[in-house]
């Protein structure tokens, strides 16, 4: 591993916990209270949506006497408490529960078993159901699972069900979206300050909006479906401060691979990961999603990026629901700080078979590959394809290995065919991909990111070597047990497609 | 685990696993008589039936009825390493199976750990064509169950007949799913590297009261961390069953 531009400092550890009980916490020094109030006033100025009621409980204003991190504040508000500590178990009110075709039927089964055949979900507008995993397959059980979702949504009058009936042509299904995490963002279900739970580990993706979001199992989801609540343990927070100008050859995927490589696949188990710093502020919403999407690959419970004008701008035309962002207090306690100088980083990959098996892309230049895959919640968004197109455009060459493109959602697919790529003279991504000899972008879904049924498009049915923009490179993840997956950014994936070897994108971008 | 749970609760569990429950567990006071010495040489060959003489179904049932909570597990162990992810526990192609459907639950059991690379794990956890495993305890390293939130993972292990995983640490969602479903006891070891000292097929005892893992084949004894408040929840059959039992929620509607 090359030089690691990182410093880790153990900041305020929980050393003063014992002082916070009783009278001390109820009567803090006036100076501290004043500073907090002033701090919170600054934050309130940034809130786009004005509050509904003139009177707000202290937990929602940030004017709490007890300094908290963003994650603690969100959970405090959701549990109707003015303050809480990491490690506490609290009943949290859930704003959105998401499920999909893989875990939805099991969740529904548990909901019905436990609450009764005639039970109703706690709120038909807060349960969002997104078929996305095994859609374009002739697997009967997979098809049946989508039918189970449809029957349930009809029965329960679920407001947000993104159905697909015509599997032959996804465009004939205007409601169909595709990959749940990207669809949640695009359809306005991700909002600052809220709590979003989903039956998918990459639900942490939504932390990019400054909200608490985390993956849960079917049984927990069945409970939420019936009650709208879940008992959650408040996680302590690790803080990742990313500063410096982002080099033109790096993407957020490189940043998160850097972080996972640093702290390992269990480095954030039970913890929250908060990302901030000038680099994070400069990232688009899609790039922030890439960052938060993979916190689970470090074991993280959730990841958060503080909401800012980029967030508010993204949400402008997507939701009319009022939301209240919250921010970590200046003197909030983080169990550890990690600082990175992003300007010194280089393009990375995660070698088989672990997301923390970090290496520089250029260190792997002798690794011959059989295919490239661009897709998934992590690496199948519009900007991911734009990035790949930029590399193909810069090289003007053709790919040397089969290159599979799976847009995350229908919206992304349309962008590939509609949006001009900057600097291309008006060409779209799809035109550039065609000229480079890639496979035609296929129907949006989770696709082969997790293998899926045997007939899944681009599933790795042979023990091949793949460079992929997805999130996991475990044994068998994309299909074949002995397949080898190199996780990489869309830049690195496209560069590798052009050479047939794992390739540093600087070969084409500079 | 201090509170003894009436046997009735165990049997009233709605989970299909209860039908085979008695065959693979014994109770805290149903200790192993004397370990049959041939066991050592037979470690990889004995089939499930070898367990039966030790705890003949009828006897085990009688013991359970008289004693209450199940806190000790005996059987052959299956040993894995660090970072066993959910794709190895149950590959994604099998996620079309819905755990809440009894026949698909059983099918999940037949597929438990089928994603382990064959080269490193020549002995399958579940023999092809069988629904359950002859291994009743899984021993692993760090970060067991990392990856997906798929509840199919602990369900597959539970449905295979294994009731205990002993590992150094767990991924968060997997641990939570074990407890929420009540399928598996995710027990942590006090020390690291135990998995390196155990071999697949060793005969072991996991004692959740004494917090011990005993490897009879190797003649070793290890300390386990207490399962704590998660124990009674798993014993009850998951969070719903536990909440009903303790009066947190009322009896099932309709």
UniProtKB/TrEMBL annotation, chain A:
Domain Aconitase/3-isopropylmalate dehydratase large subunit alpha/beta/alpha: 73-359, 363-500
Gene Ontology MF: a single term: metal ion binding
Repeat in keyword set: no
InterPro entries xrefs: Acnase/IPM_dHydase_lsu_aba_1/3 (IPR015931), Acoase/IPM_deHydtase_lsu_aba (IPR001030), Aconitase_4Fe-4S_dom (IPR036008), Homoacnase/IPMdehydase_lsu (IPR006251), IPM_dehydratase_rel_enz (IPR050067), IPMI_cat (IPR033941)
Top-rank taxon, per record: Eukaryota
Record's keyword terms, sorted: 4Fe-4S, Iron, Iron-sulfur, Lyase, Metal-binding
Family annotation (CDD domains): IPMI
Biological processes annotated in GO: L-leucine biosynthetic process
Name of the protein in its database record: 3-isopropylmalate dehydratase
Organism: Dendrobium catenatum
TrEMBL record, chain B:
Keyword check for Lyase: yes
Regions that span the bilayer: none
Gene3D superfamilies, alphabetized: Aconitase, domain 4
Pathway: Amino-acid biosynthesis; L-leucine biosynthesis; L-leucine from 3-methyl-2-oxobutanoate: step 2/4
Molecular function per GO: 3-isopropylmalate dehydratase activity
Protein name, per record: 3-isopropylmalate dehydratase
A GO CC annotation given for this chain: chloroplast stroma
Enzyme class: lyase
Reactions performed catalytically: (2R,3S)-3-isopropylmalate = (2S)-2-isopropylmalate
A Pfam family per the record: Aconitase_C
Domain Aconitase A/isopropylmalate dehydratase small subunit swivel, chain residue ranges per copy: 137-182
Organism encoding this protein: Dendrobium catenatum
InterPro entries named among the record's database cross-references: Aconitase/3IPM_dehydase_swvl, AconitaseA/IPMdHydase_ssu_swvl, IPMI_Swivel, LeuD
Annotated family: Belongs to the LeuD family.
SUPFAM superfamilies xref list: LeuD/IlvD-like (SSF52016)
Entry keyword set: Lyase
GO biological process, one term: glucosinolate biosynthetic process
Subunit structure: Heterodimer of the large LEUC/IIL1 subunit and the small LEUD (SSU1, SSU2 or SSU3) subunits.
Top-level taxon of origin: Eukaryota
């Amino acid at each position: 591993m090359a030089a690691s531009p990182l410093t880790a400092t153990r900041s305020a550890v929980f050393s003063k916990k014992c002082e916070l009980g009783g009278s001390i916490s109820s009567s803090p020094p006036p100076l501290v209270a004043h500073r907090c109030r002033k701090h919170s006033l600054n934050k309130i100025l940034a809130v786009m949506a004005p509050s509904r009621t003139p009177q707000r409980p202290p937990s929602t204003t940030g004017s709490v006497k007890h300094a908290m991190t963003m994650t603690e504040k969100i959970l405090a508000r959701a549990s109707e408490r003015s303050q809480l500590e990491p490690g506490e178990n609290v009943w949290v009110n859930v704003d959105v529960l998401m499920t999909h075709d893989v875990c939805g039927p099991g969740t529904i089964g548990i909901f019905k078993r436990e609450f009764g055949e005639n039970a109703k979900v706690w709120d038909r507008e807060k349960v969002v159901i997104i078929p996305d995993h095994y859609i374009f397959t002739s697997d009967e059980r997979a098809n049946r699972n989508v039918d189970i979702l449809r029957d349930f949504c009809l029965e329960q009058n679920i407001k947000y069900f993104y159905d697909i009936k015509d599997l032959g042509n996804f465009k004939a299904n205007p409601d169909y979206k595709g990959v749940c995490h990207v669809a949640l963002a695009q359809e306005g279900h991700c909002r600052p300050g809220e709590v979003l739970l989903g039956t998918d580990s990459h639900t942490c993706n939504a932390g990019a909006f400054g909200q608490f979001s985390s993956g849960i199992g079917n049984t927990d989801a069945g409970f939420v479906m019936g009650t709208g609540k879940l008992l959650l343990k408040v996680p302590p927070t690790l803080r990742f401060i990313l500063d410096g100008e982002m080099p033109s050859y790096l993407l957020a995927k490189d940043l998160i691979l850097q972080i996972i490589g640093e702290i390992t696949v269990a480095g954030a188990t039970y913890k929250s990961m908060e990302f901030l710093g000038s680099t994070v502020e400069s990232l688009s919403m899609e790039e922030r999603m890439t960052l938060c999407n993979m916190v689970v690959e470090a074991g993280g419970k959730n990841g958060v990026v503080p909401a800012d004008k980029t967030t508010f701008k993204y949400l402008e035309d997507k939701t009319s629901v009022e939301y209240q962002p919250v921010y970590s207090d200046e003197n909030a306690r983080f169990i550890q700080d990690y600082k990175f100088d992003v300007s010194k980083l280089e393009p990375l990959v995660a070698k088989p078979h672990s997301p923390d098996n970090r290496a520089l892309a250029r260190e792997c230049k002798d690794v011959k590959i059989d295919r490239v895959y661009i897709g998934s919640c992590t690496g199948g968004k519009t900007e991911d394809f734009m990035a790949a197109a930029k590399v193909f455009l810069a090289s003007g060459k053709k790919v040397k290995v089969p290159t599979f493109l799976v847009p995350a959602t229908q919206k992304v697919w349309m962008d590939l065919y509609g949006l001009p790529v900057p600097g291309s003279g008006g060409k779209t991504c799809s035109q550039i991909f065609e000229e480079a000899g890639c496979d035609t972008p296929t129907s949006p879904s989770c696709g082969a990111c997790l293998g899926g049924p045997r007939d899944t498009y681009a599933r790795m049915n042979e023990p091949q070597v793949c460079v992929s923009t997805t999130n996991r490179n475990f044994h068998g993840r994309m299909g074949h047990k002995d397949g080898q997956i190199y996780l990489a950014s869309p830049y690195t994936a496209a560069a590798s497609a052009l050479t047939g070897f794992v390739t540093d994108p600087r070969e084409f971008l500079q | 685990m201090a509170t003894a749970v009436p046997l009735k609760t165990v049997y009233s569990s709605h989970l299909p696993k209860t039908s085979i429950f008695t065959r693979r567990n014994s109770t805290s006071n149903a200790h192993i008589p004397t370990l049959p010495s041939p066991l050592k040489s037979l470690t990889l060959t004995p089939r499930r039936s070898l367990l039966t003489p030790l705890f003949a179904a009828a006897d085990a049932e009688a013991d359970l009825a008289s004693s209450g909570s199940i806190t000790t597990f005996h059987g052959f162990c299956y040993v894995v390493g660090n970072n066993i992810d959910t794709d190895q526990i149950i590959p994604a192609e099998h996620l079309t199976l819905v755990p809440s459907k009894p026949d698909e639950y059983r099918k999940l059991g037949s597929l438990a750990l089928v994603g382990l690379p064959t080269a490193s794990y020549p002995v399958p956890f579940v023999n092809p064509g069988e629904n359950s495993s002859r291994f009743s305890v899984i021993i692993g390293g760090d970060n067991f169950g990392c990856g997906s939130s798929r509840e199919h993972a602990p369900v597959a292990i539970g449905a295979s007949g294994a009731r205990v995983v002993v590992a150094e640490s767990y991924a968060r969602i997997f641990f939570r799913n074990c407890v929420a479903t009540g399928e598996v006891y995710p027990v942590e070891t006090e020390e690291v590297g135990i998995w390196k000292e155990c071999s697949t097929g060793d005969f072991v005892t996991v004692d959740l009261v004494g917090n011990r893992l005993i490897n009879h084949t190797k003649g070793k004894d290890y300390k386990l961390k207490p399962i704590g408040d998660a124990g009674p929840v798993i014993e009850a059959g998951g969070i719903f069953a536990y909440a009903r039992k303790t009066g947190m929620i009322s009896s099932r509607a309709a």
